[in-house]
Every structure is written in structure tokens, then in C-alpha cells.
Design goal:
Blueprint lengths: L3 E5 L20 E2 L2 E2 H11 L4 E6 L4 H6 L4 H7 L9 H9 L1 E6 L6 H7 L1 H4 L4 E4 L3 E4 L5 H12 L2 E9 L7 E9 L4 E9 L3 H7 L11 E11 L2 H8 L10 H9 L4 E5 L3 E4 L3 H19 L1
Parallel strand pairs: 1-4, 1-6, 4-5, 8-12
Antiparallel strand pairs: 2-3, 6-11, 7-13, 8-11, 9-10, 9-11, 10-12
Helix pairs in contact: 5-9, 5-10
The structure holds uridine 5'-triphosphate (UTP).
């Protein structure tokens, strides 16, 4: 039903400079595997084989990573190191990769719109590889596809984020429509609010200090293709960027966005702190599996 996954990967990754001066943020490894490969494996495990990647200048190593490397393979062939390439070779065999370059870095909404020729007129998943999720056997994208099958409209993954960090996220409000699966019909959303924005957003003007957390959008979406037409029309929003949150708000006003509190753990690997936490988490899992 969802056959394609879009990976916006054109951003500058400034929080990781100087590492990201010549190396794409999406290619930074957690242990031995680049962030983007985790994302592609998550899409594959959700039954998606077609990976559409939005790249930009300086991102060519992404294409090289998801391609054969004949010299290296023949060098390792028949040696005890051959198994080290097995995992990535499986990914390359199972998935097809298409690429488009975002020529100006004008925001996530613009990156998604840049992917339109690779997606066409069908619903699709979006994975931001720097939000790394560990959900065990049932990946967050698989979970969201189940929700999409039920509601047939855009689905966004949400997580409760403390008030102190909320300015880094898109925030939603909505009505709980299914307490068992933790799904909300989204009625309003706002991108990276400051406390003044939040005061206006929270309708009954409660004391913000008494609101411990908000439902924030994380880097996983299932989008219906009408999002492209909306993205073409919207004006630059927060920070002068074309924001996907603004386009989703237009769908939400028609009751066509579901917020889903996914089951699992997310690491914000776009920040140094989250990246270190993810590294420790996956290193511990590796140690536990080896015992
Ligand atoms: P981020 O805002 O986290 O990435 O965008 P960034 O801008 O590269 O990072 P910083 O803030 O400068 O450190 C989330 C995802 O969207 C992509 C990024 O590559 C990242 O994977 N993105 C963002 C684009 O592809 N194009 C854009 O114009 C903006």
C-alpha cells in the first residue's frame, strides 16, 4: 500500500560542524552503520522497497554507500572479513534507490516538495534519518502504516516533549480518538514555538509552567500526495523556511491528519547529546546480544 519512502537528506547539519563540512550528517555512523542505513532498513522492514533520497551538494557519498563497491568486494572476497559487507549488500539487493538534488536548502517542506518527481501521485512515507528510532521488531514506519490503513489520511509520529525543549519541535493539539493505539485527530499545529507562540496556541491560556509536556512531531510521516499541491502554495514560515508543519496544518483543518504516539525509543541524532545517547544505547544492545 505504501511503496515509497522519501529521505530528505540535503540539510547542512550545522550542529555537527566541522564533522559535516565534507561528510553528510546522514552518513555519520552509530557504531559501524550510517544513520541513513538504519532509516533504509526501517523502511524495508515496513515492506517498502523504493527509497527516494533528496540530496544536495557534497552528499555524493550517500549514492556511493548504496551502490556496489567492486574493488573493495573483490579485495575482501574469500577472506575472513567478507562478512563485514553482508549487511549493506542485502540492503542494496532488496531496495531500489532514486535521487534528486535540492538545489537550495529552503527547509524540510521544500525538500519534500523536491521529492515529488520521485514519488508521483501516491501516499508515501518520510523518514528523517537523524531521528533514529529503536522500536524492536515493529519499526515506527510499520506501526504508522497500520494507522494509515485505518484512517487513509496523513499520519505523523508524535512524542511527549518537556516544555523546556519544545522550541525545537513542531507541536500539535488534537482530540484523542483511540486511547488504545494512542491516536489523535490533529486540530492545530505550530512549528518551533517560543513561549509567546505557545501562549496563543494553548487555547485556554493555562499557566505554561504547569504543562509538563506537549505532543511534538518527530521525523516520521506518512503523507498523502495532495501535500505537494499545498507545499507549492504555502509561503515561507518559521526561520524563513518552507515548513512541512504549515502544509500539514492545511490538511489538519480538513480533519485529515492523525497524530500517532509511537511505541519505541527515539534519539535525536541531529544533536550531539542525542547522538552520544544513541551510540551508548546501541553499544549496550550489542554487548547484551554478545553475552
Ligand atoms: P534538520 O533541520 O534537522 O537538519 O532537518 P539540518 O538543517 O541539516 O541540521 P542543522 O540544524 O543545521 O544541524 C531534518 C532533516 O531534513 C533535511 C536534513 O538533511 C535532515 O535530514 N533537510 C532539511 C533537507 O533535506 N533540506 C532542507 O532544506 C532542510
Amino acid at each position: 500500500m505504501i511503496k515509497k519512502c522519501l529521505f530528505p537528506a540535503a540539510g547542512y547539519g550545522t550542529r555537527f560542524l566541522p564533522a559535516t563540512k565534507a561528510v553528510p550528517k546522514e552518513m555519520l555512523p552509530i557504531l559501524t552503520k550510517p544513520l541513513l542505513q538504519y532509516g533504509v532498513e526501517e523502511a524495508l522492514s515496513a515492506g517498502i522497497n523504493n527509497m527516494a533520497i533528496v540530496t544536495g551538494r557534497g552528499k555524493r557519498s550517500i549514492e556511493d554507500h548504496f551502490d556496489n563497491a567492486f574493488e573493495l568486494e573483490s579485495q575482501l572476497s574469500g577472506t575472513e572479513k567478507e562478512y563485514l559487507l553482508e549487511e549493506i549488500k542485502k540492503v542494496i539487493e532488496k531496495a531500489t534507490f532514486t535521487y534528486v538534488r535540492q538545489q537550495q536548502i529552503l527547509g524540510l517542506g521544500h525538500a519534500i516538495l523536491t521529492g515529488e518527481p520521485l514519488i508521483g501521485n501516491e501516499p508515501f512515507a518520510v523518514i528523517l534519518a537523524d531521528d533514529l528510532c529503536d522500536c524492536g521488531a515493529n519499526g515506527v514506519t510499520s506501526q504508522m502504516i497500520e494507522i494509515y490503513k485505518k484512517y487513509k489520511c496523513s499520519v505523523i509520529a508524535i512524542e511527549e516533549i518537556p516544555f523546556t525543549q519544545i522550541g525545537k519541535y513542531g507541536v500539535i493539539s488534537g482530540d484523542l480518538i483511540d486511547g488504545t493505539s494512542n491516536t489523535y485527530r490533529v486540530t492545530n499545529m505550530i512549528e518551533k514555538p517560543d513561549s509567546h507562540d505557545l501562549m496563543n496556541f494553548v487555547e485556554d491560556r493555562v499557566d505554561l509552567n504547569n504543562v509538563p509536556s506537549f505532543n511534538a512531531i518527530i521525523g516520521r510521516y506518512i503523507l498523502t500526495p495532495d501535500i505537494f499541491g499545498i507545499l507549492k502554495k504555502i509561503k515561507p514560515g518559521k526561520n524563513g523556511e518552507i515548513q512541512i508543519t504549515d502544509a500539514l496544518l492545511s490538511q489538519a483543518k480538513q480533519g485529515k491528519v492523525i497524530g500517532y504516539k509511537f511505541k519505541g525509543k527515539r534519539f535525536d541524532c541531529g544533536s550531539v547529546k542525542g547522538y552520544v545517547e544513541a551510540t551508548n544505547h546501541f553499544a549496550r544492545s550489542l554487548e547484551n546480544n554478545n553475552i
